[in-house]
Amino acid sequence: MMKILSSNSMKYCDKQTMIDNNVNEIDLVKRAALACFNLIRDDILYDYKVLVVCGNSNNSADGFRLAKILKDDKVSVDVSFVGNLKKMNETCSYFYKEFEKRHLDSLYGRNADYKKYDVIIDAIIGVGLKGELREDIVEVVNKINDTDAIKIAIDIPTGLNSDTGTYKPVCVKADYTAAINNIKYGHLLADGPDVCGEIAIADIGLNSYNVECIKLIDEVYLGKHPKRAANCNKYDFGSVLVIGSNISMTGAGIMASLSALRSGAGLLSLACPKDNYEIVSKRAPLEVMVRHLDEDLDLLLNKKTTVVFGPGLGRDEKYLSILERMLKKDINLIVDADGLHLLSKIDNLKNIKKCRLVITPHTGEAAVLLNKKSVEVKEDVYTSLRELVKKYDCIAVLKGHNTLIGDVNETYISVTGNSGMATAGSGDVLAGMIAGFALKEIDLKKVCKAVYLHGLAGDIAESKRNEDSLIATDIIENIGEAIRTLY
Fold first, then answer.
1. Which of 83, 129, 146, 156 is most exposed, with the fewest beta carbons within 10 Å of its own?
2. 312: exposed, middle or buried (C-beta count within 10 Å: 0-12, 13-18, 19+)?
3. Mean pLDDT to the nearest integer, 418-443
4. Which residue, among 63, 43, 45, has the nearest Cα to 55 in the 3D structure?
C-alpha cells in the first residue's frame, strides 16, 4: 500500500536510510537527480531549451545535479540561480560548484530570460518551506508562471506547503511533479492537486519505516467485494434507519435512503418530521418504508443495525434528545449534514457514547465541530481530521476533493471523484453508501470502501455526462457499476 508522507516523516526516512545503509547526502542527491532524469527525459526533445531554477536548498542540489545530467545527455540547459551563495548549505554548494566548474557559461542569475525556454524545471525550495515565500522568490515564481513553458517541479512546486497543500501568496503551477521517493501530503490535499499537475514518483531507494503517514485507498487494500451467499435473506445485510427530510429538504433523506439500498442494505426505513410525511411518502422509492419521526424512538430503532442521522433534518434543537438517545445505543450511527451541528452541542459525548460513530463533515461543518474558523480547517485538513477523531472518538470522514478518512489508529485518503461531485446531495449519497456497506458492524475499511466507491461512481457518471452536468442522482445510478470493479 502506498504511503503518503509528511515533511517530518520524509526527513526521518532520509536520515535513517543514510545511517542504516551507510550512504551520505551527496549519494542521495545523485540518486534523486538520476531518478528525475529517467522520469522526464522522454518528454524533453533535443531541440528544447531547458532552464533549471535553483536556490539554496537540497531541492536545489537535486536541480544542479539534474542540469549536469541533462547537459551530459546533450540537452540545451541553463541554470538560473536565485539564491544566496552565503546561505547555501554544504550539499547544495557541492553540486553548485560541480555545475559551475564545467558549465559556467550556462549559469545565470535572476536576470535570465525565462520566456525563451521550452521547459522550466523548478528546484528552488522543495519540502522545506515553512510559512510564506519571501518577496524575491514570489517575483521568481511569477516569472515562471508567466511563461508558456512546460513546467516541471522537483519534489513539490515552490510555494506549496508539503504538509497542508496550501500556499501563500503564490506557488509554481506545474504541469508535472517528480515526487522524490514518496508522494507528500501537500500533493493531494487542498490546492495541491490543482498546482502539481501530473505526479510521478522518482524512487531513490529509501528504506520503509514505521512513520506517521496517510495511506492511499486502492483496490489492493479494499480487496474483493464479497459475493452474497445463495442461502441468504434481507436481514443478513443490515437494517438501516435514515432520519431526515424535513419539509424544506425532502430529497436529502430520500437520496441517502436510495444510496444505502444501492450499496447493499437489506431493509431501509426513512423517518421524517410528521408535517412532511405525506410528501416524503409520495416521493420515496417503493422499497423505502416511510415513518413518522414522532413515533416512539424504540419502535423506530427496532431491529435496526445502522442509523443515518441528519440529511435534510434541520437544526432544530428539539432533535437533540433523539441524537443523545441514539448515541447511547449499540448501533452504527452515521451523523451527517444538519446532524453534525446538533452533535457539536453535546458536551458529555464520551460519557454517554456506546454507538459506533461515523461523522462525515465538509470543512465548514468540521469547523463547527472543532469550534474553529473554516479557514483554519482548510489550511490544515490533516490535523483537523486527527482532532475530530480524538474529540468525538469516532471514524471521521473529512470531505474534500481528496477525502480523508481516519480512526484513532490510521488515516487514509481517497483520490477517486471529480469536481462535478461538488453538487447538492452528493454528501447525502455518501452517508447512505456508508450505511449500506456497514452491515451489522461498521469499521474503518468499510467506510474507506464507501468513500472510494462513491468517488468512483462519480467518475463513471462524469464519463457519461460531464462535470458541469453531473448531479447527485447520477452518482446513485452508477453505484452498482462502481461496486462491480471490486468483483
1. 146
2. buried
3. 96
4. 63
Q: Which amino acid does the sequence have at 486?
A: L
This prediction has a pTM of 0.95
| 459 touches 415 (CB < 8 A) | no
Sheet holding 267-272, edge to edge: 3-5, 213-216, 411-414, 403-406, 395-398, 356-359, 332-335, 306-309, 239-243, 267-272, 289-292
- Burial environment of residue 57 by CB neighbours within 10 A (0 to 12, 13 to 18, 19 or more): buried
Residue-wise pLDDT for 211-269, tens only, equals 999 999 999 999 999 989 999 999 889 999 999 999 999 999 999 999 999 999 999 99
- Using alpha carbons, list the distances in angstroms from residue 248 to 237, 243, 486: 31, 14, 37
Quote the cell numbers at residue 122: 523548478
Query: What number of other Cβ atoms are within 10 A of residue 72's Cβ?
Result: 11
Q: What is the Cα–Cα distance from 128 to 158, expressed in whole angstroms?
A: 10
Backbone angles phi, psi at 185, to 5 degrees: -50, -45
Q: Are 36 and 62 in contact, with CB atoms under 8 Å apart?
A: yes
**In contact, 475 and 427? CB cutoff 8 Å:** no
Q: Cell numbers of 282, please?
A: 409520495
